[in-house]
Amino acid sequence: MEHFCVGGGNEHGRRTMTSRGDYGSRNYTFRESIRNFLPVLRRSTDNRRAIPKSLEAPASESLKQRHGTKPPKVLPSPIGEEGGETSETTQQTFVPFPPLPLEIYSPDHGRMSAEEIIDHQRQQIDALRRQLREADDDLQRIRPERRHHISDDYLLRLWDNLKYKIQTHINQRFTAKSGKWSLDPFYGLTNQAYRYMDNPITRLKLFEAIVWKFLVENVFSLDGLVWAGFEHEHFKYVSCRFLGYVKARLLSREDYNAWRATSAAMFCSPNRNTQEEEDRITRLEVKLNQQLQRSQIYGYDVKNQPNIWEIIADAVEIDMLMKKSRAEYQVYMYQPIEYRDFRMVPDTTTYGFEFNPVTDEENVMTVTGTDHRQVQLVVSPVLLKKGTAEGNLYNHRLVISKRNVLCD
């Protein structure tokens, strides 16, 4: 009795047809049995694997049309090769790999023609394009309400880096006491300039105070706005006017800071012309060097890094980031009024006031070594934050960086 493995219904998807005489009595031929009961199997000519059932061609398609007149080749079962015994009932039928069908099977859409799949994908692309346009329209509508946020940790790192550059510059430029120096650069800073100049540590703090006072007055105040370019005068005028409205309770602080942050973001566009900004930094560099060069060591090169131009540029970048946020940042040496006009600070209040542990810190021992709490020199300003980037909670105050002072 001969056995043939054909498509059908046991657990392996095959039916065993026994007795060639049974087929002969019903006038069955081998080819007809394959056409009627066996789904077309396709195998790769490389690895001789059977094609999945999902890719089988319709049983109604004639075998001759798809595979020519040669009958399918019957191969021994792998079980017989590996296990050592051959079972005729486990033989598999393989056929040559046919040409690609005109119909393509898609797991998501079943059997579809190539044209139908292309049309479907075009519809999906059109739908995605519509969604992209709608998302872009939404972005354009909410763009004016965009919040510029700067984290406290990031701002503190920028601030400490600026401090470090100033200290490094001063240490290189004033390593020794110059034979020619006057009290003019220290006017309004302290009445202990002579004594501080005799100490190598406090002498450096004196010159640090000169640099920081210059930055607060010319960069961090409304007299600065270096990043605004040609518009800085107009921005200063409108800001002072609106601040007057806030003080008179004609304008809320929330509305003022929202206007200020939005305007700063417009002036600080990446496509802005930075030529005026760079020219102002250069003019400020010349002005500050004129105050410092009379007391610097002989032969010092002002181009040594970090130089004054780089220090001023870093300060301008920090001021720009703070102005673009709806949080209200204050940088001052003595009083918050410095933000509007440094000239409104009386000289009598720049030293000799009480030490405040909330906003002040002393990192250098005083000359006398005492623990008096009278501030005689403000070395660097305090950096305060009011409110949040969302434009609320302006009654909350956070000290990001304390001011460094010398007490006596």
**pLDDT averaged over residues:** 76
Percent of residues in beta strands?
5-15%
Radius of gyration from CA coordinates: 42 Å
Series of secondary-structure elements, N-terminal to C-terminal = EEHHHEHEEEHHHHHHHHEEEEEEE
Point out poorly predicted stretches: 1-28, 40-67, 74-105
Strand segment tally: 13
Q: What structural category characterises the helix and strand content? A: alpha+beta
In angstroms, what separates the terminal alpha carbons? Answer: 118 Å
Shape: elongated
Which range best describes the helical content: under 10%, 10-25%, 25-40%, 40-55%, 55-70% or over 70%?
40-55%
Give the strand line-up of the largest sheet.
8-10-13-9
Number of helices: 12
Largest sheet: 4 strands, mixed
Word description of this protein:
With 408 residues, this protein is an alpha+beta fold. Helices cover 40% and strands 13% of the residues. It is built from 12 helices and 13 strands. Strands 8-10-13-9 form a 4-stranded mixed sheet. Strands 7-11-12 form a 3-stranded antiparallel sheet, with helices on one face. A hairpin with a 6-residue loop joins strand 1 and strand 2. Helix 6 (152-173) runs antiparallel to helix 12. It starts with a strand and ends with a strand. Residues 1-28, 40-67 and 74-105 have low confidence and may be disordered.
